[in-house]
Amino acid sequence: MSDATVTSATSSATIRAEEAAHFGKLARDWWDPKGASAMLHRLNPVRLGFVRDAVDMHWGGDVESLRPLAGKTALDVGCGAGLLCEPLARLGAAVTGVDAAFENVAAARTHAEGAGLPIDYHAGELDTLGLGRFDLVTSMEVIEHVADKQAFVVQLAAHLAPDDGNGGGLMVLSTPNRTPTSRMLLVEGAELVGAIPRGTHNWDDFITPDEMRDLLQHAGLAMGEPRGIAYSPTRGLHLSSDLALNYIVTARQAA
């Protein structure tokens, strides 16, 4: 598929065509833990650990269960080639993945089929796909890439299951914080040395936790306490109280 085709197919309210094209070019390499998406491979276990704890807390499930999402539906928006979708499926969820880049969705489908995982993938603008509502909605390292951040959060909220007496749906978001630390390490550092592909980040698009709280509140959601995703040479990427680099947070319908 040509870049021109991608641009034509993905221009919309929240999708930036140039962002879809950038990530679509990485599709073939997405599942290589030493390739262009190596940073996501290192980040994924940290995010997944947070999601697992949030799921157990939200639904009061058995913390020893290997399939805490059994009987539940999950939607991952900005799913790339499925790095989070596949472990969510293994945790028991009926998973749907959405991405702006058709190339990513094609790679995700191929990989899921090879792993025997029945994940439902779609390419395009979320609110045009008619996917319904989900128990769990995730969107990791995505909001900093969208054109209209408030519209994007409203779309996510519209796909969250309503509160039917068990707390309703759970949302989990992660994104870089807009700080001098993130500028130095993620943009000027990681991209400069090739740890992240050049052009991946625009520091001005990063969102602070206070801005995230406002976006979620406008969409009728209450944000939980954010947890930082920090880096150290001895521990690598890990959950932390330090929000300066990156953070991950839950949201649910406001009371």
Quick overview of this protein structure:
The chain is α/β, with parallel strands linked by helices and 255 residues long. The chain is 36% helix and 19% strand. The chain has one domain (3-253): Vaccinia Virus protein VP39 (Rossmann fold), CATH 3.40.50.150.
Can you offer a commentary on this structure?
The structure is a single chain. The protein is of the alpha/beta class. The protein has a single domain (3-253), classed as Rossmann fold (3-Layer(aba) Sandwich). Helices cover 36% and strands 19% of the residues. It contains 8 helices and 9 strands. It has helices spanning 3-10, 17-24, 38-59, 85-90, 102-115, 149-158, 180-193, 209-218; strands spanning 73-77, 94-99, 120-123, 136-140, 170-176, 221-223, 227-232, 236-240, 246-253. Strands 1, 2, 3, 4, 5, 6, 7, 8 and 9 form a 9-stranded mixed β-sheet that branches. Strand 7 (227-232) and strand 8 (236-240) form a beta hairpin. Helix 1 crosses helix 2 (17-24). Its EC number is 2.1.1.222, 2.1.1.64. This is Ubiquinone biosynthesis O-methyltransferase. It catalyses: a 3-(all-trans-polyprenyl)benzene-1,2-diol + S-adenosyl-L-methionine = a 2-methoxy-6-(all-trans-polyprenyl)phenol + S-adenosyl-L-homocysteine + H(+); a 3-demethylubiquinol + S-adenosyl-L-methionine = a ubiquinol + S-adenosyl-L-homocysteine + H(+). S-adenosyl-L-methionine binds at residues 47, 78, 99, 140. It comes from Aurantiacibacter arachoides.
